[in-house]
Design brief:
The complex is a heterodimer of chains A (about 250) and B (about 400).
Chain A (H helix, E strand, L loop, with lengths): L1 E5 L2 E3 L21 E3 L1 H18 L2 E7 L5 H10 L3 E5 L6 H14 L4 E5 L10 H9 L2 E11 L4 E7 L2 E7 L3 E5 L11 H7 L4 E4 L30 H11 L4
Helix pairs in contact in A: 2-5, 3-4
Chain B lengths: L2 H8 L21 H28 L6 H8 L17 H14 L1 H21 L2 H12 L5 E4 L15 E5 L2 E12 L6 E7 L5 E7 L5 E2 L14 E12 L11 H35 L1 E2 L2 E2 L4 H29 L5 H25 L11 H13 L4 H13 L6
Parallel strand pairs in B: 1-4
Antiparallel strand pairs in B: 2-3, 3-7, 4-5, 6-7, 8-9
Helix pairs in contact in B: 2-4, 4-5, 4-7, 5-6, 5-7, 7-8, 7-9, 7-10, 8-9, 9-10, 9-11
The chains are: A alpha/beta (about 250), B alpha+beta (about 400).
The complex binds flavin-adenine dinucleotide.
Amino acid sequence: MNILVGISKTPETTAKIEFSEDGKSFKSEGVNYIMNPYDEWYALVRAIELKEVHGGEVTVINVGTISNETVIRKALAIGADKAVRINKETSSSWDTASQIAAYAKEHSYDIILIGKETIDYNGGEVGGMLAEHLGVSFISFASKLEFDGSVFTVEKDIEGGVEVVELNGPFVLSAAKGLAEQRIPNMRGIMMAKRKPLEVIEPISDEGFVTISQFTKPAEKVGIKMVDPDQMDELVRMLSEESKVI
Amino acid sequence: MSSLTADNQTKKVKTDQFQSHDYYQVDDLLQEEHLLAREAIRSWVKSEVSPIIESYAEKAECPTHLFKELGELGAFGPSLPVEYGGGGMDEIAYGLIMQELERGDSGIRSMASVQGSLVMYPIYRFGSEMQRQKYLPRLGTGELIGCFGLTEPDHGSNPSGMLSNIRKDGSDYILNGSKMWITNSPIADIAVVWAKDEEGVIRGMIVEKDMPGFSAPEIHGKWSLRASITGELVFENVRVPGENLFPEIRGLKGPLSCLSKARYGIAWGVIGAALDCYDSALRYSKERIQFDRPIGQFQLTQKKLAEMITEITKAQLLAWRLGTLANNGNASPAQISMAKRNNVLMALEVAREARQIHGGMGITNEYPIMRHMMNLETVLTYEGTHDVHLLITGMDVTGLNAFK
Ligand SMILES: Cc1cc2nc3c(=O)[nH]c(=O)nc-3n(C[C@H](O)[C@H](O)[C@H](O)COP(=O)(O)OP(=O)(O)OC[C@H]3O[C@@H](n4cnc5c(N)ncnc54)[C@H](O)[C@@H]3O)c2cc1C
């Protein structure tokens, strides 16, 4: 089974989030990056597990500049067979999906897995757009993916229960928690990854549908104020004047 | 009831919030594989060591289930060649692996140091091809556990005075004597043992646990390195086949070259313990309020934190430079002594200052500080005491031997 896995790089959850003066871009200086956990822990690991049982090859793909290669190398260390980097700073989910689709069209993959969202922009759009570009089905938020040799069974959590879907490839699936368990690469994997192929290809032209006008940070959280039960008037005053809820 | 449930009832497990600190961008000097190795070991420590280590240390019990996991990760002998159970990595990767393990606990780092540098390394370096094939792959995976016997009850800093001895008997040797303070000995499958032959020359050999006359009782009552098991080795007319002796190596330089390898790992490892203490103190200093302000706002707290990160940064640079020398095979034993001595004391002092910043909380197992501090007292003494390393530097710079 040939599987393509989309991986991306996101700031560590503890990173300090700052934007440029004009508010149009994220300040990346001093930020530590990791592989997006939904891509790494779930999509990638499940792809490797399927390959281990059914044979075939796992290719990881990333749209990004050379600074993304540590994350790509990590995917190879965890067990992907080869990697492709489309050499550009992506401008939007649409751009990412178009770039990956252009590559995927030239190759034939049985299934394409990606994380349900990145933990920085939380867009969750790439999977659907990618499936549309390729004209295949899209299944979002999958928490289980099985293959019996002919048919795939996918489970996804829905309000109050689980939806079970049976289908044939090819399709695009976005991975949620539960699909697999994190694998820590071992030292041998890290050394082997150095020798695995990482192909860099040039992007197709960007249709440039999206421009960013402004990033703003949410309002600073204010501490909890305790009001004495005898001071009801003060509580009412605060609710109406300070927080303006009544 | 499993012991784990019993534990959970007495102690809640805090999540490990550790974040590393790199004040001088030393990371820019590292390669991709170094960063990946460090990240991998760090995640493993966070998920497998941090949640259990306080309770194992409290019970003075060794988490032996971690041997196989360490083997699976490739933490044993990472700089040995792959065909002999190693990882084929460089010395900086080895150092960073030790740093991340010791960030968790010096006892866990000791498990890996002994297995990789004091057992696998001498078998690789001095062993016959048959010995290498027989033991190294299974040591690398953690299927076999090894220990290293040099120190004796009456010969610690002065190992050349050792009394353990071998006598030739046909193609075998008869081993007698005892060893003291041996990490992993009660659970070890094999021991690399150093003993004198009939001419008084030190020889190295591999002793297997079921050889008649060999026992390895545990040493109890340690207030340091409590999650690491330590014992004796007792040999009463143990018949060791000639093929178990290292064929070529003679004299103290055999064990000393292993110690150089392990000390090198310690020079890196203790930076991990120091970083853990500093990181915890820094966080605590911003959260703990006294006199209506975070204690980190007081100049005296800032002095402690500023000096801690300064000393950690110096140690990181020393270790990195030592690593680049070691990669070219140019790190001298005296240079390794200097780094071991400097960095271990640095870590111990950082732990002591961090303990004060945590106030009363600093003495509890809610924080890793006291455990690190107690562990580091062993690290200051084993693999050559703090003072002995000073005398090595002294001898190196003056050319005069203070040991005679
Ligand atoms: C937990 C633990 C694990 C260990 N694991 C191992 C192991 O796996 N294998 C192994 O072989 N050993 C191991 N050791 C032994 C360790 O290496 C020795 O404890 C160490 O070498 C010191 O020896 P000693 O304890 O006999 O102290 P001593 O040599 O008796 O030293 C006592 C004091 O005298 C000082 N001193 C000694 N000689 C001089 C001198 N010439 N000039 C100035 N001062 C001097 C020392 O610095 C020290 O302060 C371990 C020790 C501990 C505590």
